[in-house]
Amino acid sequence: MDNLNSYLYAELKNTPFNLFTILTNYLEIHKDIKVAFVGGYIRDLLIKKFHSNHVLKSPDYDLVIEGSSLSLARFIKKNIKNVKICLIKEFELYNTVEINIDNIKIDIASAREEKYLAPGLNPSVFDSSIENDLKRRDFSINSIAYEISEKKLYDPFNGICHIKNKELNLLHENSIRDDPSRLLRCSKYATRFGFKISKDSLHQAQTVLNKWPWKYTKNKYGFKFPPGISIRIRMELTEIFKYDNLTEILRTLEEWKVLSLLNENIKLHNKFIRGLNWIKRLNGNSILFLIKDSKSLEIISDRFLINQKEKKYLKEFLEIKNSLIDNEKSFYKFSPSSWTNFIEEKNLDPETVKLIICDGGKFWRNFLRWLITYRYIKSDKNGKILKEEGWKPGKEMGDELKRLRFIQIDNLRKH
Question: Among 94, 198, 246, 284, which is least packed by CB within 10 angstroms?
Answer without folding.
Answer: 94
